[in-house]
Amino acid sequence: MRAAVIVFPGINRERDMARTLKLVSGREPAMVWHADTALPAGTDIVVLPGGFSYGDYLRCGAIAARAPIMAAVQAFAAKGGLVLGVCNGFQILCEAGLLPGVLMRNTQLKFICRDVHLRVERSDTPFTRGYNAGQVICVPTAHGEGNYVADADTIARLEGEGRVVFRYTAPQGAVAPEWNFNGATNAIAGIVNAGGNVLGMMPHPENHVEAALGPTDGRGLFQGLAEHLGRAA
Amino acid sequence: MKAQVTVTLKSGILDPQGKAIESALKSLGIAGIASVRQGKVFEIEIADGDRAGVEAKLKDAAEKLLANTVIENYRIQINGQAA
């Protein structure tokens, strides 16, 4: 795994992400500054971490989505390269047009920082091959704007094409309003693009990877990615 | 030239901030408020040019950055007149 973690001003989860990528793959990721215009040669996955790029000015992720490095990320994604966006990274991918829809203010207006349950909807993506379809994982979340919204046609297309990869559910896996804490349409927590090579998700799998720190349910995502890329190499 | 770009949420998009402001106004006892939607106004100074050219530049700015057209509409005013 030759990961490139993109660093925007105001991002604060890039070290957690880099630590997890190293832990799982054994290889230190490249930290790529937003003002750069090229990804390191040989990059096989680009990661947009969480945080508050540009202080969430204008709209979450809006300014970062137009940063110089994003042209290289767009080109990388267009060639089928894997791109993972977590939290602010998901917001940036939506603003950049790499994923449809937008992340709006949580319906109850609160910033929510706690563990949540996600149902993994499919296991046949490079991002979720470390899980079983229908499996429920527990990972932390920390956001004020995670309420996924898109027009009805887009939602129908995402659902019809099986592009909703993670959904907020009860610990046993049932979708219910009380577990959809941010009000996301159809309890959507994570989606992939039409090519299946770009994933955006609000919760933070990179923070649940070590037994010393609690649950390790997030590890499967990174282990699956490492296996996928190891096989491709 | 002075221009204004006003960005508002499309109808049908839930606006939790507008809802919170609406209930705060109601709790202040200001009568007759039916609903509130929050938007943004950008006041832009732009180099003089022919009006069509300036309008095209502002439209470009709105489409590329100022508004997210998935959820927002925008309107442009140049020197106080609707573009």
Walk me through this protein's architecture.
- The complex is a heterodimer of chains A (233) and B (83).
- Chain A starts with a strand and ends with a helix.
- Chain A has one domain (3-232): Rossmann fold (3-Layer(aba) Sandwich), CATH 3.40.50.
- Chain A has helices at 14-25, 69-78, 88-95, 152-160, 219-232; strands spanning 3-7, 30-33, 45-48, 82-86, 102-104, 112-120, 136-143, 147-149, 164-168, 188-192, 198-201.
- With 233 residues, chain A is an alpha/beta fold.
- Chain B has 83 residues and is of the alpha+beta class.
- Chain B contains two helices and four strands, in the order E-H-E-H-E-E.
- Chain B has helices at 16-27, 51-66; strands at 2-9, 40-45, 72-78, 81-82.
- The mean pLDDT of chain B is 93.
- Classes of the chains: A alpha/beta (233), B alpha+beta (83).
- The A-B interface holds A 58-59, 62-63, 66, 95, 100-102, 104-109, 147, 149-151, 183 and B 13-14, 16-17, 20, 64-66, 68, 70-71.
What would a concise description of this structure say?
The complex is a heterodimer of chains A (233) and B (83). Chain A is built from five helices and eleven strands.
The rounded Rg of chain A comes to 16 Å
- The run of helices and strands of chain A is EHEEHEHEEEEHEEEH
In helices, the fraction of residues of chain B equals 25-40%
Which two chains touch over the largest interface? A-B, 20 and 11 residues
In whole angstroms, the N-to-C terminal distance of chain B is 13 Å
- How do the strands of the widest beta sheet of chain A line up side by side? 2-1-3-4-11-10-9-6-7
Q: Looking at the structure, what is the overall shape of chain B?
A: elongated
| CATH topology term of chain A | Rossmann fold
Portion of residues in beta strands of chain A equals: 15-25%
The main β sheet of chain A shows up as: 9 strands, mixed
Structural class of chain A: alpha/beta
How are helices and strands ordered from N to C of chain B?
A: EHEHEE
